[in-house]
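Example 3.
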Amino acid sequence: MTVTATPQSPASERKPGAGYWLKKNLFRTRLDSVISVVFGALSVYLLVRVFLFVFVNGRWEIIRVNLKLLLVGRWPSEEMTVLAVAIIVMGLWGGVIAGLIAGRQRLAGTSTAAGMNAAERVSDLVRRFGLIFATILLLLLLTSTAGPWLTMLLALVAALVGYWLGRVAGLRKWGALANWVGVLLLAGIPIGVFLYTTAATPLAEWEGFFFNLTSAAAGIILSFPIGVVLALSRRSKLPLLKSASIAYIEVVRGSPLFVLLLLANVSLEFFVPAALAPSKVVRAIVTFTIFSAAYVAEIVRGGLQSVPNGQSEAAKALGLSAYKQTSLIVLPQALRNVIPAQIGQFIALFKDTTLAGVALGILDLLNGAGAITQQPDFRGQGLIIEALVFVAFLFWVGSFTMSRESQRLERKLGVGTR
Amino acid sequence: MTDTNPEVFADATAVGGDVMIELIGVDKFFGSFQALRDINLKIARQEVVVVIGPSGSGKSTAIRCINRLEEHDAGRIIVDGIELSEDVKNIQEIRRETGMVFQQFNLFPHLSVIDNVTLAPRQVRRMPKGEAEDWGMELLTRVKIPEQASKYPGQLSGGQQQRVAIARSLAMKPKVMLFDEPTSALDPEMIGEVLDSMKDLAKEGMTMIVVTHEMGFAREVADRVVFMADGQIVEVGTPEHFFYDPQEDRTKLFLSQIL
């Protein structure tokens, strides 16, 4: 590769700044130079190959044609409006929550955006969520109808309106009653959207990437409180509670998720009559919850142990009940300490939802990608690579964004506290 | 217990007022190690008792038994007429009447200063938020840091944190304050401000038990000084008696080492 030879050319000597940087960081010793050249060559080679695959050789027609199948499976076309409404309402909801947090942080003086001007704020947002926006835009460019464009545009507007509303509400101090109503309302919206969506298309028919996203979200939301209870039980002085919790955690953590999913597929028939047996999607979500709860429990237990003993002693000395010592003093600190590990666990669960596709035969993103390569138009053309790259890309966008947000949160929580 | 001057010191009521805290024959074991041996002590209402002694002598363990942070294995502990027992209600009642200040402050880092102070009144005494905050500000003013109310503990100096901790324990309007080496974790220049807050408290008539190495404080503020070694009370007396005319060899040795 001739490209990598340029840093050593005389041009770099004439520009002392760049030349100095290169010499210091890449060519300080003979070994450094060898490593730099070898890895530089390798990187350029790979980048060129990836570029050629994505923009020249890749046959992305298969994705474009099957985009709906990959994203939402066989969701009935006449019910797409329901999905659109759900997305827009959730956009509003997300905006309100982001706005509330921003307003509250402003009030508490812990806002990181406080010292930023408008341009910095935009660039901060782009750095945080640009990848997601770019991906959504890419997917929109692949569509041939106006519906998705309109939906995403309205969702964006709804999110902005929601942000503004949330911020206004967050900057005000509310009474206890208003706070409760607000919390109930915010918790109620996703439940309402869920009921509205399942009324149109039953849960059993949720497919595509939509299945991966929603089942991961459900698994995360349901497993978190169960995991916290398990962690507290494991530290309990009551022997029965303690051993039950240990047994649960160790059994579940000792089994592969794939096996649990396969078991969920066949074992429920032993306990419930066939007519009452839940759908595959429900089984998948229940299994995710059971599995994830055990991991959440161990993460939270680590967090509980990281809170110094003096904290509960101080709470005791003030006369707080055992319940309040835990809920007001120890648990909040423990949970804050484990946010990064927790998000890591949720990223893993998000990716593991692809196992449900295979184990339970749900047409999720991965299964869908396999299925489309068997279509008459595309069969036998080796298009599985394109399909799998697309799958990997979507999961990467989600996981990478979550992991970046986690790092951001970690930095933020380190500020202004001990 | 080897009281050197029984007529004056055997009984706190001799110092004045009725009995606030009574320890009768208290033993405490950590495994096979005996941390407290037959501790007998009566403390009067409004009395300030300073407990001194070498490290490992059981000073901290003794006061931690009074609010049940440690469970005593034998003997009786009675606080303001309530005897400590297994009964959770009894324990809670004694803890509500007993404030404690720790060596490591133990402020709640996730709560602002004012929330640290108002937490117990709001959660335990069910005081309304507004009233609790007024009360909290009054306490912070008393320890001379009202301007720090909305900050977080991590943003304060050690001396400020310890004064918040004092305000926090006062928020429950305790009848007794226990201080467990309150200045031992502080930089020297911050010790004074914490001791000043404690002196103010003593002047206001608070019943106090203070475990400390601050001999100046003991001399100036204490009604009685208790010297402990090896889990036992070796000598009890007024500061004058204690610093100028100690009777026991163990006491003399200790004083010669620290003074």
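Chain B has ten helices and ten strands. Chain B touches chain A at residues 67-69, 92, 95-96, 98-100, 102, 104, 106-110, 119-120, 123-124, 150, 152-155, 165, 168-169, 172 (CB under 8 Å).
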